Amino acid sequence: MPRLKQTDPPFWDVRRLLLGYELTGQSLSRATGMSESTAARRLANPGDLTLAELRRICRNGGIPADRIREAIKFE
Question: Is the full-model pTM beyond 0.85?
Answer without folding.
Answer: no
